[in-house]
TrEMBL record:
Cofactor(s) needed for function: Mg(2+)
Record-linked Gene3D superfamilies: Enolase-like C-terminal domain, Enolase-like, N-terminal domain
InterPro entries: Enolase-like_C_sf (IPR036849), Enolase-like_N (IPR029017), Enolase_C-like (IPR029065), Mandelate_racemase_C (IPR013342), Mandelate_racemase_N_dom (IPR013341), RHMD-like (IPR046945)
Domain Mandelate racemase/muconate lactonizing enzyme C-terminal: 160-256
Pfam families: MR_MLE_C, MR_MLE_N
Organism: Marinovum algicola
Source species, domain of life: Bacteria
UniProt xrefs under CDD domains: MR_like (cd03316)
GO terms under biological process: carbohydrate catabolic process
UniProt GO molecular function: hydro-lyase activity; magnesium ion binding
The name this protein goes by in its record: D-galactarolactone cycloisomerase
């Protein structure tokens, strides 16, 4: 059957959420909690022509199980029988019917995974990678920053010693920059930042992620130390709802203020960008509404002359999705030597990223072998396929 005939006759026949979970080698933490299990929420959209698309929903643990119910029990009945090529029609149908029950949060996370899978289907139907469907690749390879330096149940002194070594190790892996977690408390967090600067040396970018742990006052205390240390950005220093606080921090600190992973859809992002509180935007495609809505958010960010460094968390599906988005992202503001967007990469153990695919992306191997460069997938759709045996081995009931 010709592609045109397939495209005109496709119908969505089933949507399945696969929630994967495993024990981690060690407990890790950030400013809000410690965790010892890793979760990934993979969405599979099937069609009557045997073409299947894959997506991913942001959200760990019980959040993933709740989102599975939204995907299968709420969204699936709304879109069964629809043409998966009608991505924007499907997006607005689902959003409009769920609007009374939440314009942010878990309904949008659930819609995100379905939408990404529809883009995967569209690429497979047309024989094009997702970055081609968006409009083409500005770059065939991207660089990445490695984050680590997670919090543990140990003393500040032990954190400091470990952060020096971990920061140096990530630099030596070939990453373009590194990012640390903070959240022990303002004074102790300054010690952690000083340790990372010692670890990477003076001429290597590092960033600090607070996961909205501070009041504005404490954020200024830590931010001034980050100014002196030459940090590249200060991520989510305060609660995402505190737009006035973000604006005050951006006006009063030299370090770039970044955030946005907890914001959803074009309307939430419009308010965030108009508040003028961000130097760097960090949209999360697996949460804000999928690729369809991400492209609108990206346009808003560029309309406000705000550079974008995507937030990336999750499995190999999320990583592959973001590689396409980074390839298709125009430089902002442009010029001969623009700062190129980086892929965010978690350097801690993640089997759902490293072993999920039939043909692994091998990000760390590419970084080491290719002078820090990672190839953007070129196959149809996402250009990757999960190993169904792997999914069956780690899938949990919910």
């Amino acid at each position: 059957m010709k592609l045109e005939a397939i495209a005109s006759s496709l119908k969505i026949t089933r949507i399945t959420s696969h929630v994967l979970q495993c024990d981690m080698p060690e407990e890790l933490g950030y400013s809000q909690q410690y965790y010892s299990k890793r979760t990934a929420h993979i969405v599979e959209v099937e069609t009557d022509q045997g073409i299947t698309g894959w997506g991913e929903c942001f959200g760990p643990g019980n959040v993933a199980l709740a989102n599975k119910a939204i995907v299968e029990k709420v969204i699936q009945p709304l879109v069964l029988g629809m043409d998966p090529m009608d991505r924007d029609v499907i997006w607005h149908r689902v959003y409009n019917l769920l609007r009374d029950h939440g314009q942010k949060g878990m309904p949008l996370q659930s819609l995100s995974g379905v939408d990404i899978a529809l883009w995967d289907i569209a690429g497979k139907v047309t024989g094009q990678p997702i970055h081609k469907l968006i409009g083409g690749a500005h770059r065939s390879h991207v660089r990445s920053y490695g984050y680590g330096m997670m919090l543990k149940r140990e003393s500040t002194a032990d954190h400091v010693a470990r952060f020096v070594d971990e920061a140096a190790a990530i630099r030596d892996m070939g990453f373009a920059a590194t990012k640390m977690k903070i959240g022990l408390g303002a004074k102790d967090d300054v010690k952690l930042a000083e340790a990372v600067r010692r670890g990477v040396g003076e001429d290597f970018d590092f960033m600090a992620d607070a996961n909205h742990a501070y009041t504005t006052s404490d954020a200024f205390y830590v931010g001034r130390a980050l100014d002196e240390l030459g940090a590249f950005w200060f991520e989510e220093p305060i609660a995402p709802e505190d737009l006035d606080g973000y604006r005050e921090l951006r006006a009063g600190l030299k370090v770039n203020i970044s955030g946005g992973e907890a914001e959803f859809n074009r309307w939430g992002w419009r308010a965030l960008l108009e508040s003028r509180g961000l130097d760097i935007a960090q949209p999360e495609v697996c949460a804000l509404g999928g690729i369809t809505e991400y492209l609108r958010v990206l346009a808003l960010c560029h309309a406000h002359f705000t550079p974008v460094f995507n937030h990336v968390w999750g499995s190999a599906i999320a990583v592959a999705t973001n590689l396409h988005l980074l390839a298709a992202m125009p430089p902002m503001p442009g010029g001969l030597f623009p700062r190129e967007p980086w892929l965010e990469f978690d350097t801690t153990e993640n089997r759902f990223r490293d072993h999920l695919l039939a043909e692994p992306l091998d990000i760390q191997g590419q970084v080491k072998r290719n002078d820090g460069l990672i190839a953007v997938p070129t196959g149809p759709g996402l250009g990757v396929e999960p190993d169904r045996g792997f999914i069956e081995a780690y899938e949990i009931e919910g």
